[in-house]
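User: Can you predict the 3D structure for this chain?
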Amino acid sequence: MFEIEEYGREKVMARFDTMPDRVHRALLQFVHVTVLTLKAHIVRDKLHGQVLNLRTGKLAGSIQSDVKDSTNEIVGSVYSSTTATPYNRAHEYGATIPDRVPKKAKVLHWMSGGKHVFAMRARGFVLPERSYLRSGLKDMKTQIIEGMKKTAVMEASK
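Assistant: Here is the predicted structure, written as structure tokens:
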């Protein structure tokens, strides 16, 4: 049989009462660090050669991170700002770009290799999937899960 003496009972109960707060704070700190680590991995590795090569730096500069904390959950996010780079989704998931023809003008105009290009139409093409966000998360999945378990267990056992 197990008994708690009266003078130790309050200490034990206080420890149990603060445990959820300690675990929550520790997990919140872990999520903050992990989100920044994931963001750095995506920018440094995925967008500098593993998946896409750096061209203008706009896509790498559009990578944002955020942590939302509430009583019952902590949500960490790493995402690409669509306002900075409207093509980020096409790279992440792939896309089918249709043929383009001028609507009001006689010809289309764009720059390619520093030269002006004029054409009556531009052929469509299929842009293959080049996942940088999902593949970055997949790279760190095990590390994230193990880190969360370890953090929760360590804080609960203090």
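Strands lie at 63-69, 74-80, 95-97, 108-112, 115-119, 125-127. The chain has two domains: 6-88+130-156, 95-128.
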